[in-house]
Write a structure and sequence with these properties.
- It catalyses: D-glyceraldehyde 3-phosphate = dihydroxyacetone phosphate.
- Helix content is 42%, strand content 14%.
- With 250 residues, the protein is an alpha/beta fold.
- Helix 1 runs parallel beside helix 11 (239-247) and helix 5 (105-117) packs across helix 7.
- The chain binds 1,3-dihydroxyacetonephosphate.
Length: 250
Amino acid sequence: MRSKIVAGNWKMNKNLAETEVLLAELTAKLPDTKAEVMVAPTFVNLAAAVDKLKSSTIEVIAQNMHFAESGAYTGEISANMLLGIGIDTVIIGHSERRAYFGETDEILSKKVAAALANNMRVMFCFGEELEDRKSENHFKVVESQLKNALFSLDASSWSKIILAYEPVWAIGTGETASPEQAQEMHAFIRNTITNAYDSGIANNVSILYGGSVKPNNAVEIFSKPDVDGGLIGGAALVADDFIAIIKAIS
Ligand SMILES: O=C(CO)COP(=O)(O)O
């Protein structure tokens, strides 16, 4: 069901002590909100975060997982391990996984399938690079990322999918897509899903924007009708900034 979501992707930041400090600040300051609030600390701190947030409405989610159930995959983490510590939502397809860890659409479609087979929710990330936008290929690129990883799913699986449009040129750069650019792409995404499935599925999926969302631009971005919230990187590491972004959800 379409809902407002603000999620913090902590990436490779915060050791255990720092994680506990940030979570304590967030729980102390969390405002009343209609948004689902999520945080994604690193793997080693997930269990501690789940424990720390057990009486909070903030959900702990994972930044990644492997597609295999178990086996000889040194350094990897399975769906079953996440579920075992109470985590049932996972980010898949972040541009940093694609760029630095060779995750192709084919690998990502296997990860999505594995998460869904385990009844997990998937926050699927995608978005064009600067070159794609400059050459006006951004719609084509986004359409193919969605098609290759998601469009062979059964219609019923879409209730478990959250989308996060993150233009690569806006991640960690301080350069945000304008609210109009975000709205234009989010509307395109809904239209693409309508064509592949139907408008019911397209209108029920939450589509988050990610890429340099900050307290000073969140209200405007979140006010757009097809933007259902944000996936926040840098600003999610500072309690007051993340709280201000949560408050930007109306
Ligand atoms: O990659 C992001 C969230 O997944 C966005 O990162 P920034 O908010 O730091 O640009």
